Amino acid sequence: MRPRIRVCNVFVVSKSNLTGKAHFKVSIKSHSICVSWTANESEIDQTFVLPDMRLIPKSLSGLQVRGNSLSFRVQTEPLTNTSGSFAAEIIPLLRNLSFEQNASIYVPGIVPNVAHTLLCRCCGNKLSLTDITVKRVLPLPTDSTSQFEWFCHNHGGSGSDDVCDVAASDVKKTDCLYGMYFVLLSTAWLQMEASEVLSCARCFSWLGTCKGSTAKLWRCTTTWGDDNAPQMALGDFLAVIGEAVRGTMGMLCKIVLETKLSPIETQYILLWVIDKELQVLAYVNDADQIPQLSGGLETETVLAPKKTMKVLYSHHVSRDDEVKSWQNDVNVQGVDIAKQMFVEGLQYLAKVTNYLPAAHRMSGGFYVCHLGL
To answer: Is the domain defined by 1-92 classed in CATH 2.60.40.790?
Structure first.
């Protein structure tokens, strides 16, 4: 729904194929839309109640029926005399998206000068040679900050209080650095082979990556003994996107999400945010309560407004020319994420894309998705 341009795009997706000998009837009222169709000797009347908007009954256009989907456009008019009218307009302040409301700044559960046990979150295998004790737990700059912008507080770069060697990115054994849902530790603590990709010796789960003598481990892959928080790969994925978007000006934002699956394989998601706050009227029914085409059926559904983020995305299994073009653009943010975040995030994007009819799932070679739906 786009009140500023007075239009409502309607997408109806059925579990059964709507083409063939099916007969349709669409009835538009001021605050509801009724869709009726007859197929396989079954008649279904589905009414969508829209209490928060006002429709213009005789304004239906662009009606399309393809496969199991029905789509059309309806014009709207403002509920008040000022909001959204041509004479004047009230633009609401941006609010947090639904998938950002529970996001919080990640701080690892590590207390300086206290012994901690590092475990694999999947199987509980101990990952450290001994209990880990660090003197300092310090935050890192964001992924958009170049490492060459870091400096030591003593301004000499060689004092005993240096956190790491900027050029080599080697974290001292007595320090733990953390960023968006990951920590950097010295590999001297770990009882595993220091390869480019770190895996659990017991269950072979992907744990993180290694560069030099520094290991990068993620919240969704490891736990610190007394950390009983559930695995949050998808939640961390959405929070990372939200954090990247909050740091940009304007409505458009481009992000390259990448993960190193193996020493020789890196995959990418190109994410193009085209509307940071789009209001969608939606209702997701319980799968067990979805009506079946058996006899006559009449149902009424009240649609509730949801704040979503409209994005275009594409998945790339290698660093092809398009990925390189995005990475070379100074206005594009690059974010490294865990394998589990990448996999679950891509599955989530594909699931939400499938909410749309097939004819509306792609635009300009990218898939369309509404985050937070």
So the answer is: yes
